[in-house]
Amino acid sequence: MGEKLSVNPWTGIWVRPRETIRAILSYNKKYMLVLLYWLYGFPITLQAVQNNSLGTEYSEPAILVMSALVAFLTGFLGINITSWLFYKTGRWIGGVGSFHDLRAAVGWSSVPNIVAIALWAVQIAMFGRTVFLSMFYTMPLEGTQLTVIYLCSIVAIATMIWGFIILLKAVGEAQQFSAWKALLNVLLPIIVIVIALKLLTWLLMLFSATAH
Questions:
Q1: Contacts of 171 (CB under 8 A, 6+ apart)
Q2: Measured torsion, CA atoms of residues 90, 93, 98, 104, in degrees rounded to the nearest 10
Q3: Tens-digit pLDDT profile for residues 146-186
Q4: Cα–Cα distance for residue pair 165/189, rounded to 1 Å
């Protein structure tokens, strides 16, 4: 661990992701990790609530409290599983980062979720628990409500794109990859999972056919 963190990671990760991750890895690979678990998991948990239309059963305060509690576990699993996959597949293409290096990179790449949480807050303030219905984005809206959703969507898409670039830069720094090789590292787990699922489906179909 270094004596001092040389950058402010909360701002640096947006504009200097490689330098920021390099500083964090030198300082403390577990720095702010618990908070990053929550930050990673909270928007995902809120999205799951919406997908399952829990707004029909629970009030906004109840949903927010439950989501805040579940978010840590969601983030813990999400960051650690993703980091392990990046670590394992990165080894195939010459990655040098440890699991803990990748965990720090993935964790700090979730900082843009601050914007996602802010967008959720705006929508909850305007629409209440209606925002937690799966049909929310297909509901007829007009005037100010339509404008708010439109602007939130634009900001969300822009943040998502920039967040992905931050992830590539962070993984690239942890693995000592170029951005393009980091992209391969990020895509490899998806490719492996898709192939594994297709293989499993084929085996199940083969088993079913032979059983009859």
A1: 86, 90, 97, 102, 105, 106, 109, 177, 182, 185, 186
A2: -50
A3: 899 999 999 999 999 999 999 999 999 999 999 899 999 99
A4: 17
